[in-house]
């Protein structure tokens, strides 16, 4: 991670307040495979922070090191300013929610939620009150007597979340918790999870792991993009999408077009490209290229056009679907078109190493 990216990670904590989570120089290897190499990370108190990346990029390893399930080969982990690198999980003020709900089938929903409190020796009355409060928070307040088998997948995921929240940890770690849900339910849960985090932000910091870019952009205050055991960029969802640091970030977070412009490699997102007739005039300060439409994909609200340029390169453009004719080309397969874009909408990027 560059010095600029590291600064972006550290400056989020309020002045004088220790980060909720801080990783310094973390290294972890499994035999000859290096999962993390000198990784630095800082998460502010109350933040919804997402670690985003493909499989094998190191994001889950980082979460396991924070949780205490793994011990790093080098570096340290701090929680609220305390070095917890060698502490076992039960001595860390964190809880983890996994993709596998791991609910006890013989227990009621309320019993599952209260189980951790029972292990800690919390009295029965307080356990019941706190479990009921946690279930209300995840909108399952009237289902406490049911068994997990009587719930839908989304409801079981909420029970797992309530079970973690009932312990009131300083940091809640979420390891791809929505991965087993269908698309519509996953999208609904994204909004609900963000609403819960917003309500609890004064008490709990959320650290979320996913390979789903939509999840990361929808829910996060900030995102760290992982690749091959290192962090490529840390920033807000808008910064990550609009100003990717390099070609890897640009290609992993959304679709991107890499174009040579004024001797530099720049990224232009598909929605920034305008589709015009091949002989159309363009503004004096605009950039443009002519090619042939090779693929047309209808996506409901938008249509995606894959255009092969005369120089052999391929660009992808999106056009909003509406009934208002704009005088432009139909964009049919095989039609010659001109793609235009503004230089201000092109973001210079580093090449992948």
TrEMBL record:
Q: Where is this region: Disordered?
A: 320-353
**Single annotated GO MF:** ATP binding
Keywords assigned: ATP-binding, Nucleotide-binding, Transport
Among Gene3D superfamilies, the record links this protein to: P-loop containing nucleotide triphosphate hydrolases
Stretches assigned to the ABC transporter domain: 21-253
Question: Which residues, if any, are the signal sequence?
Answer: none
In which domain of life is the source organism classified?
A: Bacteria
Query: What InterPro entries does the database record attribute to this sequence?
Result: AAA+_ATPase, ABC_SmlMolc_Importer, ABC_transporter-like_ATP-bd, ABC_transporter-like_CS, Mo/tungstate-bd_C_term_dom, P-loop_NTPase, Transp-assoc_OB_typ2
Does Transport appear among the keywords?
A: yes
SUPFAM superfamilies to which the protein is assigned, alphabetical: MOP-like, P-loop containing nucleoside triphosphate hydrolases
Q: Name one Pfam family in it.
A: ABC_tran
What is the designated name of this protein?
ABC transporter ATP-binding protein
Which organism is this entry from? Conexibacter stalactiti
Q: What is the taxonomic lineage of the source species?
A: Bacteria, Bacillati, Actinomycetota, Thermoleophilia, Solirubrobacterales
């Amino acid at each position: 991670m560059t010095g600029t990216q590291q600064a972006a990670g550290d400056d989020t904590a309020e002045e004088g307040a220790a980060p909720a989570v801080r990783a310094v120089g973390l290294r972890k290897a499994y035999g000859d495979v290096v999962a993390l190499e000198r990784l630095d990370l800082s998460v502010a108190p109350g933040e919804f922070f997402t670690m985003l990346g493909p499989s094998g990029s190191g994001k889950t390893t980082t979460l396991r090191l924070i949780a205490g399930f793994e011990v790093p080969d080098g570096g340290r982990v701090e929680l609220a300013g305390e070095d917890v690198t060698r502490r076992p999980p039960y001595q860390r003020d964190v809880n983890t929610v996994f993709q596998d709900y791991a609910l006890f089938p013989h227990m009621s929903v309320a019993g599952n939620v209260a189980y951790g409190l029972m292990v800690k020796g919390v009295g029965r009355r307080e356990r019941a009150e706190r479990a009921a409060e946690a279930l209300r928070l995840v909108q399952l307040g009237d289902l406490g007597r049911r068994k997990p088998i009587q719930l839908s997948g989304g409801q079981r995921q909420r029970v797992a979340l309530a079970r973690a929240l009932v312990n009131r940890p300083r940091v809640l770690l979420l390891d791809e918790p929505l991965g087993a849900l269908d698309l519509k339910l996953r999208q609904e849960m994204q909004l609900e999870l963000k609403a819960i985090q917003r309500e609890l932000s004064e008490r709990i910091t959320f650290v979320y792991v996913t390979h789903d870019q939509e999840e990361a952009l929808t829910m996060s205050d900030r995102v760290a993009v992982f690749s091959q055991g290192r962090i490529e960029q840390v920033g807000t969802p808008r910064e990550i999408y609009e100003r990717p640091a390099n070609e890897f970030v640009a290609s992993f977070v959304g679709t991107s077009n890499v174009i040579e412009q004024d001797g530099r490699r720049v990224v232009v997102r598909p929605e920034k490209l305008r589709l015009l007739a091949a002989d159309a005039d363009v503004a004096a300060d605009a950039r443009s290229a002519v090619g042939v439409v090779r693929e047309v994909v209808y996506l409901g609200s938008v249509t995606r056009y894959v255009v092969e340029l005369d120089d052999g390169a391929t660009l992808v453009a999106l056009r909003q679907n509406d009934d208002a004719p704009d005088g432009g080309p139909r964009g049919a397969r095989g039609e010659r078109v001109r793609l235009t874009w503004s230089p201000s909408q092109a973001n210079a990027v580093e090449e992948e190493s």
